Amino acid sequence: MSERMECHALRFFESMVTIKLICVGKIKEAFYRDAADEYRKRLSRYAKVTITELQDEKTPDGASVAEEQAILAKEGERILKAVSPSDYVIELAVKGKTFTSEGLAVHLDALMLQGKSSIAFVIGGSLGTSPEVSARADEHLSFSALTFPHQLMRVILLEQIYRSFRILKNEPYHK
Q1: Coil, strand, or helix at residue 46?
Q2: What b/e readout covers 130-165, taking b as 16+ CB neighbours within 10 angstroms?
Q3: pLDDT at position 164, please?
Q4: What is d(CA 44, CA 21) in angstroms, rounded to the nearest whole number?
Q5: Statement: the pTM of the whole predicted model exceeds 0.70
Q6: Which end of the chain has less neighbouring CB within 10 Å, N or C?
Q7: Nearest CA to 14 among 38, 47, 41?
Q8: Number of H-type helices and E-type strands within the chain
Q9: Could you give the CA distance from residue 113 to residue 107 in angstroms, rounded to a whole number?
Q10: What residues are paired with 48 via a beta bridge?
Q11: In this structure, how many other beta carbons lie within 10 angstroms of the beta carbon of residue 79?
Q12: Which of these CATH numbers, 1.20.1530.20, 3.40.630.30, 3.90.226.10, 3.40.1280.10, describes 3-58+65-168?
């Protein structure tokens, strides 16, 4: 495919793609909120971006396994209600697949070229996600073996999606 045709295809799919973030919990700190808002604004040039914040459950100190499973089940129900049947779901999980920034860009491009017009990224709460959410996910993505606060993870995810579109458009971006 010629470069001109590839660019045309990318523009066609960009105009049709929706990037959804489905997140358990709200961003409380202003600095995280400001950063997420900035990347969401930057991304709006390339795709429609929606962020759905779902109520998180309080996890008591010393919660039993049964209590943790009940919390995951409640949050999981909320996540699954927020997911559309047509969404291609990518769950953020420590044991998910890892990419370089360039690799993630190529992967997202391939999804769009396959006709995935609604890509939903799921960020679970402090306990992660329920087995039902993991089963619904089309794939699992990891940014690191480290654990990040879900508020920070939202900023990192938005930044990496934005970086992916910049890479795909051959636009400059700091490294």
Answers
A1: coil
A2: beebbebbeebbebeeeebebbebbbbbbbbbbbbb
A3: 95
A4: 13
A5: yes
A6: C
A7: 47
A8: 6, 5
A9: 10
A10: 18
A11: 28
A12: 3.40.1280.10
CA distance 64 to 52: 29
Q: How far apart are CA 153 and CA 173, in angstroms?
A: 20
- 86: exposed, middle or buried (C-beta count within 10 Å: 0-12, 13-18, 19+)? exposed
CB contact at 8 A, 13 and 112: yes
Judge whether 159 and 110 are in contact, CB under 8 Å.
no
**Alpha carbons 95 and 64: distance in angstroms, whole number:** 23
Helix axes 150-168, 101-113, angle to 10 degrees: 70
pLDDT digits (tens, 9 = 90+) for 54-85: 999 999 899 999 999 999 999 999 999 999 99
Token digits for 15? 């105009």
Give 10-residue mean pLDDT values along the chain (175 residues). Answer: 45 69 95 96 95 93 93 97 97 94 95 94 94 97 89 95 94 75
Q: Treating both helix axes as pointing N-terminal to C-terminal, what angle do 3-16 and 101-113 enclose, rounded to 10 degrees?
A: 80
Torsion of CA 14, 149, 137, 77, to 10 degrees: -110
DSSP 104-132: HHHHHHHHHHTT--EEEEEE-BTTB--HH
